[in-house]
Amino acid sequence: MIERTLQPHVARLAGEYPVVTLTGPRQSGKTTLARMAFPDRKYVSLESPAEREFATEDPLGFLRRYEDGAVLDEVQRVPGLLSYIQGIVDEDPTPGRFLLTGSHNFTLLDSVTQSLAGRTALLELLPLDLEEIRRFPTPPTDLDRVLRTGGYPRIHERGLDPAEWLDAYTTTYLERDVRSLLNVGDLEAFQTFLRLCAGRVGQLLNLSSLASDCGISQPTARRWLSVLEASFIVFRLPPLHANFGKRLIKTPKLFFYDAGLAAALLGIDHADHLATHPLRGSLFECWVVSEIVKQHRHRAKRPRLSFYQERGRLEIDLVIERGANLTVIEIKAARTPSTSHFSAFPAFESRLTERRDDRWRLREKIVVYGGDESQSRSAGELVAWRDLPDLAARRWD
Fold first, then answer.
1. Domain end call among 124, 145, 160
2. What pLDDT, on a 0 to 100 scale, did the predictor assign at position 118?
3. Are 19 and 27 in contact (CB under 8 A)?
4. The domain spanning residue 63 has which CATH number?
5. Which residues in the chain land under pLDDT 70?
6. Is position 2 within any domain?
7. Kindly report the CA angle at 173 between 170 and 175, in degrees rounded to 5?
């Protein structure tokens, strides 16, 4: 298995905190990373019924086996264990004693914030970013193959067919998580909901329309979406919250953490089918946004990400805030560069000028497009899709 970009940050934070908590979707490589980062620590999975029963019924006896610390996998299965870990690390706050992993974000984080606040570092391991994919012997080199394959490690490690693996992943993992987090009586309806979410990737989230198309109530759609967010399948990109004196869109956009999973849910079986697919542009936007999210999270960074959109007018696909500095990014699936790709930037600059305050400074203007040649232009920087890892290395390390 390759080394993940997050691994040195896990090691660094383990030297500062008694507990490191690693979350992320199922099959994103958390267990492998944990064991690579802590090869000398004992390992136990709380997915095991016997270990889970022991930890639930006798937490002190369970933890007594790991006085020197341990890797505790899928710890959200026994959330009560965290209170006992709190007592242990309060008595002996030696850094790096425990590495906890979990796949349900709100289940785990709710327990962590109650029991381990100030005692643990929180990190997220998402599916592979492009830089990590290229560490495998035979990575995909064509954009459509990258979009279709996605970033789940097992696909690349074993050379598996992405359509088959992602279909099995949806059935095996997502449905199991749904059952454990919600009482979903109709799994077929949930599968329909999941596919409808994929069909709205990169679009403004309309829960009412989503619920209507799926034949469920809006509160149910909201709960199901929360499950997908908690399982690190989808995320909402918020609009830029600021008073620009314009009619700004205030609804978030819906994205998947893995464009390959979204493509599978859309029934795209082969990369060749993407060339003429009506949602290719949306999938490319999903890939770019999720790639930038991964590049930051895998470097233990959490900048504020948003988009800017006025009703029926100006739109900026992605805005990255770092203090007072703004990076604005437009995303174009076209393979041919065009000056029109930069047309939104002057208007956005004028909006900042009209506000007449110094809260933000526009530092970078970037267009990420589906072509192969990066260029530096007076209007901004044109970044080929394949050069996104270089951009991350230069800007965000």
1. 124
2. 86
3. no
4. 3.40.50.300
5. 105-109, 113, 174-175, 179-185, 242-246, 356-358, 393, 396-397
6. no
7. 75
pLDDT digits (tens, 9 = 90+) for 219-259: 999 988 988 898 899 999 999 876 666 678 889 999 999 99
Q: Which residue's structure tokens are 């599916």?
A: 127
User: What is the total residue count of the chain?
Assistant: 397
